[in-house]
Design brief:
The chain is α/β, with parallel strands linked by helices. Among the domains are: 183 residues, FAD/NAD(P)-binding domain (3-Layer(bba) Sandwich); 118 residues, no CATH class. The chain is 38% helix and 18% strand. It has 19 helices and 18 strands. Strands 1, 2, 9, 10, 11, 12 and 18 form a 7-stranded mixed sheet that branches. A hairpin with a 2-residue loop joins strand 10 and strand 11. The longest helix is centred in the N-terminal third of the chain and has 26 residues. 51% of the residues are buried.
Length: 552
């Protein structure tokens, strides 16, 4: 009789990792009639979409918390998660960003665009008009732009739709606009610091410096999403989004297993055919393996070295992670005593820097200096969802960054203390209302999810040199890998970090399109790419074959 440790099983598809991207991939494949199994190393599903009562009575989101990208993602929207228990909630005020610790009337984004514009117009009438023009532009380009950002690269159809929506001349102007550094974009748009700071605070959700080309697109995207659909949160905590995704995957027939760490992927004849778990179980995949793991884990830990092109092995050594995260979680016995009272209704507050100080903060991170005055994202979760803690209290957290390569506990604790100090300066008396405090250091984050290497939460830097066709390495930019029937479906793949599920969605659809007779041309192209990458390093990089558009 075969023991459990040496048991084997055969399914159509294996998904390695039960984060939100893995669960999306499993649901898509199961909906197509495939026999799918998800193997998650941790005791629970969710990856960086989880919550827990770190302080009794206070539900705290452990990683991600607000989900504007989920609300517009075709992957999430298409799964109809509301039919599987998901409920969304919104704070009365979407977000705010005080200009200084003495600011008593912080700029905020309200749910109604005209109300937001009216507040900005109080400071400069031109900025109110600018806000409404931005919103109108966004409504025109919203669908084709989001499709272009989310689709496998190159997004030919989405680009054509975008040009049709606004015309060729305006499309060129839009391309130039989106490539601007956030600092330049904010100055071109707004005359007063109020509009600029709202924009720049949103740009800082990524690890791209505000003076770097391409940083403006994140500011524009999140600012418009904040105004368009708000920053929703799942009722009951982030874990409820995972629960709905898991229920949806099971509804399609997928099997979900926790405490099943995959330690190796079997490759035969250039094709991924099986996985082996730490417990000794071998599972065979008839059709595909989707890896919801970081690119370095996939290429340096899981695959046989001989199955990987030498050039890829060289390139993956240069893979750049995003900056490490430090998160300080708070349980408060009252609302946060902000000096600016209009922040008390905000779900998200950007704290600690005016437009000039943001540049200084990023300079500290770039020069490996622990910031003395950290900029942070601050979440008021009970304000956004009253189920998170008892009435009259607040479940909150602050999220900031350490410099790359500075992930030791001493530096993390130093920065956590400075986070406390900044909050006290913006909300006098804050410390006296704290009844529980839990710090999540970079090492803690990685220990709970191997994909969060060194506390990096976005699957790799979002800077331009590692986006689009450069993500995760030059010449990729799609879910397909040089190993046939193996697909990268994590945040290390295009379109990158954020809880939108499109990395898993794109990987699943790539697997479906490659399967069967219709997939023969695609598999032939993948084999050609593999042969090309196996050539000597002296082969010019510009001789690599271009990626093939879905649907072209």
């Amino acid at each position: 009789m075969t023991s459990e440790r040496t048991a084997t099983a055969t399914v159509d598809a294996i998904v390695i990792g039960g984060g939100h991207n893995g669960l999306v991939a499993a649901a898509v494949l199961a909906d197509s009639g495939w026999d799918v199994i998800v193997l998650e190393a941790q005791p629970e599903l969710g990856g960086a979409v989880r919550s827990a009562e770190l302080v009794p009575g206070f539900v705290i989101d452990l990683y991600s918390a607000f989900y504007p990208l989920s609300a517009v993602s075709p992957a999430i929207r298409g799964l109809d998660l509301e039919q599987h228990g998901l409920q969304w909630s919104h704070a009365p005020v979407v977000l705010g960003h005080p200009l200084s610790s003495s600011d008593e009337n912080a700029p905020v984004i309200l749910r109604d665009s005209h109300e937001t514009a009216a507040l900005l117009a109080q400071r400069d009438p031109r900025d109110g008009e600018t806000w409404l023009r931005l919103v109108e532009q966004w409504r025109t380009i919203r669908e084709p732009l989001l499709s272009a950002l989310f689709s496998p690269f190159p997004p030919v159809r989405s680009a054509v739709a975008l040009v049709r929506a606004i015309g060729t001349a305006d499309a060129v102007r839009l391309a130039r606009f989106l490539m601007l550094p956030a600092s330049v974009m904010a100055r071109e748009l707004f005359h007063d610091d109020a509009g600029r700071i709202l924009f720049l605070g949103n740009a800082m959700h990524s690890d791209v410096p505000p003076d770097a080309p391409g940083s403006g697109v994140m500011g524009y995207l999140l600012t418009m999403l904040a105004q368009d659909g708000g920053y929703p949160v799942p009722v009951g905590g982030a874990a409820q989004l995972t629960a709905a995704l898991a229920a949806r995957a099971r509804y399609g027939g997928a099997q979900l297993r926790c405490n099943e760490e995959v330690v190796a992927i079997g490759v035969r004849g250039g094709r991924a055919v099986s996985v082996r778990t730490a417990g000794g179980t071998t599972l065979t995949a008839r059709r595909a393996i989707v890896a919801d793991v970081s690119a370095p884990i996939l290429y340096t830990n899981l695959l046989p070295r001989e199955s990987i092109p030498p050039r890829l092995l060289d390139d993956i050594k240069n893979f750049a992670w995003d900056t490490p995260v430090l998160k300080v979680n708070y349980a408060l016995d009252s609302a946060v005593p902000w000096r600016s009272e209009n922040l008390r209704g905000a779900g998200t507050v950007h704290v600690g820097a005016d437009p000039r100080e943001l540049v200084h903060w990023m300079a500290d991170l770039s020069t490996e200096v622990v910031p003395e005055k950290p900029f942070m994202l601050f979440g008021q979760m009970t304000t956004a969802d009253r189920t998170r803690s008892p009435a009259g209290t607040e479940s909150a957290w602050a999220y900031t960054h350490l410099p790359r390569n500075v992930i030791d506990d001493a530096s993390a604790d130093l920065l956590a203390g400075r986070v406390d100090d900044v909050l006290e300066s913006y909300a006098p008396g804050f410390a006296s209302h704290v009844v529980g405090r839990v710090v999540q250091r970079p090492r803690d984050l990685e220990a709970s999810d191997a994909n969060l290497h060194g506390g990096a939460v976005n699957g790799g830097t979002a800077q331009l040199q590692q986006q689009l066709i450069f993500r995760p390495i030059p010449g990729t930019g799609r879910a397909e890998t040089p190993v046939d029937r193996l697909y990268l479906g994590s945040a290390s793949a295009h379109p990158g970090g954020g809880v939108h599920g499109m990395c898993g969605f794109n990987a699943a659809h790539a697997a479906l399109k490659a399967d069967g007779a219709r997939g023969w041309p695609r598999r032939r192209i993948n084999r050609s790419i593999t042969k090309l990458m196996n050539k000597q390093r002296s082969t010019p990089a510009d001789r690599q074959l271009p990626a093939v558009d879905e649907g072209v």
